[in-house]
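Archive transcription. Copying these from loose printouts into the bound notebook so they stop getting lost. Printout 1 of 2:
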Amino acid sequence: MNASLLVGYPGSIAAVRQQSGRSGRKANSSLAIMIASPGAIDQYLTRHSEFLNRSPENALIDPDNLAILIQHLKCAAFELPFTDPPVFGSTSPELIHGLLEILKESGVLSRGGTKYFWTASQYPSNEIPLRSASPDRINLLCAQNGQLVTVGEIDPPSAHWMVHPQAIYLHDGSMYQVAELDLDKNTALLEPVNVDYITEARAETEVEKIATLDQKSLPGTKIGFGDLRVTSKVVGFKRINLLTYENMGEFPLDLPDTQLRTTGYWIALDSLTVEALRLEGRWGSDANNYGPNWGKISLAVRRRDQFLCQVCGAEEKGKTHHVHHKTPLRCFHNIDEANHPSNLITLCPACHRKAEGVVRIKSGLNGLKYALQNLAPLFLMCDINDIGALADPESVIGEGAPTVVIYDRIPGGIGLSRELFTIHMDMMKNILEMVANCECLDGCPACVGPGGEKGSGGKQETLSLLSFLAV
């Protein structure tokens, strides 16, 4: 008998079958065993093994994504000249004409009469990556026998969170640590290592809604789908134990902002749901009310501290420093005691984030975000890193309502968030089942996030929230 051993869910049902099929190829008996990790998808599959018997997934892709479409036009023009007015699938001739003109201006096409001809010397498909919509690449270099050898490549938007300095990068069964990331030269220098952890980037993200393409009202919420602009900045990373998924420490980073035009799906809670959760004592996402004199008080504290961060010494330069409560506001019954100058300190935004991280409140909103982001890839046939997530208790996208946003991490979007919008109710019911049946007390990597993590956990809060959404 031959056997295949799968260490963790490989990302899709198709991949499970492909890897399992490596044994028993000569009509012999075979056995396939999957060792589940502590992650949400793996633990979900241990309770729903029948899921692995489903038909392999259909890959999601948006052929009208401009980054994808223009690469296809290059390949089509190489095979056969376009005639004006151009015809290309169901895409409007006006859009195709505009893109062909752009390609003509860039020098890869020329126009003769009513036809566009391929004139570049290179074969266009050689420059089109199969795993990314971006044609630009970051080369991953490793020293071997005294020479730098390219061991892989990724697109630039992914570099900030996948190959930032000190990141652990897994490739072809080998483990590397990033010694240097040079965004100007599009290179990352890797060094072989053998450690007991992986890394997870921590980013600050702002999401701006450009257009709403679809929306509907459902029990407890209003969901929407549309075009978004996502601005992200990787500010640090965590080391995660390979066996237990425990947080082994957090470390700061300073990388430039990145912007992404993409599509997203959002869940905005209605006021009745939030008020019901408040009455249950299950809502911890309300913004602090610092009182009517907070402006004067905070200015006086900043002046007392000479407008310097009291941790790192940074000066205010075009951006006002924050004033931080040493003992959290919620620990006081009297606002005047909470706002006494002895309890206040001036901090720069970076140091304030670190200080707030220690006292961040667990909430059902964060638990929902964690569960949705971690379970969705099972239904989307994508890697967890293909989607981003954000929980905001006062979201502009949700018109001021508490909102969870899931967005495609691919420029222009390829249909992942659109599919989540379509299967919203099924996702809520599956998440409720996953969280309710998890044996942990207050959160773990298999449901709403580790209970001991800053701002994570909150299992009971998440269950209460889901009781309104999954009906």
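Printout 2 of 2:
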Amino acid sequence: MRIDLHAHSTVSDGTEPPAVVVEQAAAAGLDVVALTDHDSVEGWAEASAAATRVGIELVPGIEVSCRHHGISIHMLAYWPDPHDDALVGTLAKTRDARVARAQAMVARIGVDYPVTWDDVLAESPDAATVGRPHIADALITRGHFARREDAFELVLSNHSPYYVPHYAPEVVEAVVALRHAGGVPVFAHPGADARGRVVPDAVIEQLADAGLVGIEVEHRDHSPAQRERLSGIAARLGLVPTGSSDYHGAGKPNRLGENLTSPENYAALQAARA
């Protein structure tokens, strides 16, 4: 089995609708794919129908924006109850904060790079979660940059003078809430140090105590040294190591199936649902 447990659609910052993501996964030879849009489950129904049509297994998931002492963290969760009141409230609060942050950043950026909030909305007509990638797309359409990566490097990074932070739940609280909602939490790209600061091993230990089930090890943004470090942490703490593409369609160079989760580790994630 070929299993990829991290992909995004136009519901968040991917460039393809949920059904197309699933179709692309089948075309890439995957047997299992997870749809894990940022802070939203709105793509599940469309993706599920497509999965039935093309004969692939869909894992319904989310990628929750979290924080730990100012460090941004993304927490994947598979099979959470989309009707859990606490989870629904947290996701709605985070999405609203993302929109307010994006509007504030556009106001700052527009002083130097002509771009408007309407430009951003035009790039995200189907998005439940509007974020910096959509600002990047608006800047590209306006002719300021050629690629999302260029816009992030010069305008949208955490170190940019245009950057505005946004609310996100503390990561330990998020893990507890996700487990309460029946989800199986997996720490997304925890060693992606080129993106910014990463949490130390002690924080991952706290998360394991709180109910963390897995940790993404095989990921494009992890160096060989980080993969070795994370593999060791997973073995020591009894966490399930996963591999994923973090697919965004044309939004990133990541390709479906470029990193995979083994069938044995996928079965361990499934067993944790109980």
